[in-house]
Structures are given as C-alpha cells and as structure tokens.
Amino acid sequence: MATTRLALTLQRKRFVLTQSHPFQRPLERDEWALLARVHRELDMDPRLNLDDVDIEIQGQTLVLRGSVPSELTRSRIAHTVALVEGVEGVDNQLAVPRAIVAGAELAR
What confidence tens digit (pLDDT) does each residue in 69-83 have? Predict the structure, then answer.
C-alpha cells in the first residue's frame, strides 16, 4: 500500500498528516476539513506533546502513530480526536516508551 505524507505547522505544534491509499489519491475536501477540525482541537490543549505524533486518515477513521511521553498524553490525544465532529473511529497506536511505563509501575 502506498503512503503519502504531508506535514503541517500550526502555531506552536508540528503535525504530520499521513494518507494511505493504493492509488495515492489526493485528499478530498471533506477529509481536509476533518483534519483541520482535528488539528484545531489538538492545538487548543497546550498540555499535549505532539512532537512525535503521526495522524493517518482512512476515510473518517484516524490512525494515531508515534510515541508520546506518558499514558495520560496518549489517552488525551485519542479522546480529543474522537470527539471531533466527523471522526467515526480512532485507532490509537501511540506508544509510551518502556522506561516511562516501567517507572510508573515501580512508583505504585
């Protein structure tokens, strides 16, 4: 499957948009509008660290990939994008580095 990667910079965060499609068709107007709404919502939360987050759009489903600094950030990102009008599903594949997860387990 071919993948087209697009990068956007919005005010204080850099977003990488990924589109997977066997024919590398351009994004439709409604897909661009959906991504704009998603980015607007993510940009409103200054607590979110999105330095290594990729968003792939497959129809109305978003696939989140990359790594984030904590499980809380992972959950917040998924929850935020799931509430955006037009998003029908979220496949959260964001990873939290093992050292952070292990440290959280030891702290309990």
Answer: 999 999 999 999 999
Report the predicted TM-score, pTM, of the whole model to 2 decimal places.
Answer: 0.70
**Cβ contacts of residue 21 below 8 Å, gap of 6+?**
1, 2, 4
For 26, other C-beta atoms within 10 Å of its C-beta total 10
Q: Which residues of 67-102 are buried (b: 16+ CB within 10 A; e: fewer)?
A: ebeeeebbebbbebbeebeebeebebebebeeeeee
Give the gyration radius of the chain's Cα atoms. 14
User: Of 49, 46, 42, which Cα lies nearest the Cα of 79?
Assistant: 42
Place of tokens 């990939």: 65
The class that CATH gives domain 3-107 is: alpha beta
Count of CB atoms situated within 10 Å of the CB of 50: 21
H-state helical runs in 1-108: 29-43, 71-82, 98-107
